[in-house]
Write a structure and sequence with these properties.
Blueprint (H helix, E strand, L loop, with lengths): L4 H9 L6 E3 L6 H5 L4 E3 L13 E5 H6 L1 H13 L3 E5 L9 E7 L2 H13 L9 E6 L1
Parallel strand pairs: 1-2, 3-4
Antiparallel strand pairs: 4-6, 5-6
Length: 133
């Protein structure tokens, strides 16, 4: 939420189909505030025939979940997906730090309320930084 909530809101608002995979069941009120829903994180991602245009993930999740590691490796091999990582770098993923998503005014407002609903601090930055390729 704190790392990519603004990106989620702005993407949903722009009409993108946004799928959020949760490692463990959680109160989804914060996601609903952003206009999104969460589903359980699968062991294997099945996207054929339509591969995602973008994949954003936490470095910590990548480091501990083999299915996410395979998703990133396959996305890199296909060269068709923008990949963004927050919370540090990922082994085997050649990415540049410094890519940012600048939140819209609406995204900042909705993210503020989503973070409060999730019990997180309510300070919302103007940009969300990612390592990306």
């Amino acid at each position: 939420m704190s790392a990519a909530g603004g990106l989620i809101f702005d993407s949903v608002r722009a009409g993108w189909s946004v799928e959020i995979y949760l490692e463990s069941p959680a109160d989804e009120r914060a996601l609903h505030i952003l206009g999104a829903n969460g589903v359980g994180l699968p062991e294997v991602f099945e996207f054929e025939p339509a591969w995602p245009d973008a994949v954003f993930l936490s470095a910590a999740l990548h480091n501990r979940h083999r299915g996410v590691q395979r998703l990133v490796a396959t996305s890199i091999r296909r060269h068709v997906t923008d990949i963004g990582v927050w919370g540090g770098g990922v082994t085997g993923f050649d990415a540049e730090a410094g890519r940012e998503h600048r939140l819209s005014t609406a995204a900042r407002a909705f993210k503020f309320h989503a973070m409060k609903a999730a019990g997180l601090g309510a300070e919302v930055a103007v940009v969300e930084p990612f390592h990306a390729r």
